[in-house]
Amino acid sequence: MSTLRLSEVEEAPEPVTADLFRSVFRDHAARVVVVTAAGRPAPVGFTATSLASVSLDPPMVSLAVARSASAWRTVSRSSRIGVHLLARDQEGLATTFATSGIDRFAEVSWRPAPGGEPLIDGCAAYLCCRVVQHVTAGDHVIVLARVTEARISRSGSPLVYHDGAYASVGAAADESPTPITSRSRRR
Predict the structure, then answer these.
(1) What span, in angstroms and rounded, lies between the C-alpha atoms of 90 and 29?
(2) Residue ranges making up the domain that contains 29
């Protein structure tokens, strides 16, 4: 085991500024998702790139929400959320749910899931989730949620966010439905 001596470490490291931190993560490609929650008088949703798989047994995910986000107040009170994984052709949907001050559901086809969370039609995949815990993390809150239903609606290239723009990876999206659901495996 090697040990670094203090003389080998930069003596006065520069602070990690918000601009530096943001620049580092501009180079980190991440899948784009839309997170939704039922609200009164209307549902809420936001675009995120912080989705992570946490556990297989039970199936759990995490995502981060800014406490300053317009959707946070509703999400903080919701016991259920929908997580929608976007395909390469859904940049418009990602932009809609990333835009402040608009009715994000006005032009979107959606329906309530059995648990009440809004499910957006046409996404590559979705997860219905029961919120398990909120963990405060700086100016964000990490939402830990147990996946209660999952569905892959179509295969193809995912929409990713990289270097400040939407992009995709892999071959062109196959628009034909290839439904796989967690319900069909519960026999």
Answers:
(1) 16
(2) 20-163
